[in-house]
Amino acid sequence: MKRNFFAVLLVGAMTLLLCAVAANAASAKGFTVQQLKSMSTFLSNFTEIGLFNFDIEKSGDDDALHLGSDPSHPDLIRFGIWHNYINNFKSRIKPCKKKNCEYGSLTIEGKFVSDSVRKYFDIDLKNRSVDDSDPPYHFDGKLYHFEGADGEAVYYAEVKQAEWNGKIVRMAGELYNAEDKDDRPWTFEATAKPYKWNNKDTWAILSLRTNFRSDE
Fold it and tell me: CA-CA to 51 of 20 to 30 Å: which in 16, 84, 106, 133?
């Protein structure tokens, strides 16, 4: 009986140890599981609108977008509009009040676009029209006018690893199809800096690079 009792204790202790190891595996570099989930949500704000390769401070000789070179960069404006279109449609996207609006049937206030860019990039956006974009975005001094679009595949980020490099957070993981989590065609690496937004701790993006999986 004693042998069985101690065997049960041993098994129980080993089970607790394995659970502890599994729970702390993600925090081996100093981040908890919940923090990795928050990072995943943060990065998904970029990937869900198709921003996969960019940086703020130019690094390397690849073809990534260099968004920090122009505070009115068309892709910053595109991000600010489509981020709100996806996440704040009911509260911030309004129909154009003009009948047969020539610049698009939907509108959003420029302040919401610039606020979103400041929140995620720590860049003070200069609102302006982007007429040579597809689709175009017309700014009338207060509102952006545009047309909605749906139907394209959406990809989210799942951060698998994260570590500090000085004052910069480096993150790595996989992108997966929002409609099929087993569809993971790309891996990614990203960097961000700690940032406060509305007195809350978050991150501001510095770079994001995606690569087609070599094992596909």
Answer: 106
